[in-house]
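User: Predict structure, ligand manganese (II) ion.
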Amino acid sequence: MPTSRGFEEMWRDLAPVGRSAVSGGYFRQPWSSAEGELRAWFAAECERRGLTVETDGIGNQVAWWEPDPLVEEGAPRPSRDPGVLAGSHLDSVLDGGAYDGPLGVVSALAAIDVLRDRGFAPSRPLGIGVFVEEEGSRFGRACLGSRLVTGATTWEQARELRDRDGVFLADAVVDAGLDPSAGLLSLDRVGTFVELHVEQGRDLVDRDVAVGLASEIWPHGRWRFDFAGQANHAGTTRMEDRHDPMLTYAMTALAANKQARLAGQRATFGRVAVEPNGTNAVPSLVTAWLDARASSDGALAELVASIERQAEDRAGRDGTTLTLTAESVSGSVAFDADLAARLAGLHGWPVIPTQAGHDAGILSDAGIPTAMVFVRNPTGVSHSPDEHAETADCLAGVEALADVLAELTSAPS
Ligand code: GLV
Ligand code: MN
Ligand code: MN
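Assistant: Predicted complex:
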């Protein structure tokens, strides 16, 4: 069956790109060689389908399948027709899974194949898009590519960000062979956005269905905690004479976990940097990044404030200091409920919330009617080499996406 062969071939092509031989996980950081390879792969897949890819100055990509009677190849595009854009991202977290992001891109390509196999001709433009640095794994800002194209973040703000090696974002983009002065993708012709994504939880497993739609994204964000103390000798400094920021950090991590558990929310310290990071020295500085998520904006603010209060209390007792910086905050997203209901009605799919951030949330915030299609993840594990989806469910996702795109591109505006 053409669908199955197309999807699986593309999936096989992508499998080795950026994969660690040690963990089997993926390191597809933005503006790395792995990500460049993925960009070239995407362009080639679009070309293969007769679609011309536009790559903007930072590496966002889009290719449009134009409605036949309206546009000759190469002719000016009709701006009056709002198009439907399907897509996701190809970058990964550090040591991430294969599915988070690429499943949405590969499924969008495969869905176009399905629609063509069905003899379907869209009545409005149907695009496939890829946004860069969705995970914020290199520069710490989630969904940076989509934030830039929607104007939620400006280039002036983004260009000054530095990665862990001190490389400025603007330099990383240029080193990747891109030219930021070429400008950013325009979303002017995007009337609706649809992102297919592997589910990052077990809701669909519990419901025993392969496909679902998204209702909302929990508000979430990243906060940098700098705990400063006094470097000192690990042997000769009496325990009561220390100003050890590691203790302040450790208590804060435990407090964050307890606070989130009690309130049914999420709090994670997944990244820590220690200065000078020597075994026989009390550290001078511990920097730790909190990822916090909650069911409402107010609950998230209260969660972070409570963690901060407890960290400050402990810092007072340890003789250390805390500096807290919000690095990336995303408010709650309610996807277009009428759109979700309309699409869910196609096959009776469930409509479920998610605690994960997505480019779809950014486009929705920008006022673009947006829907997400989730594909079942048998273990719910994500942001891990163990992330998985069964091929049969991926193919069900492709068919579902094709149905959604057919529904959205059938009617003229
Ligand atoms: C992105 O996947 C996030 O939710 O952090
Ligand atoms: Mn993702
Ligand atoms: Mn992710």
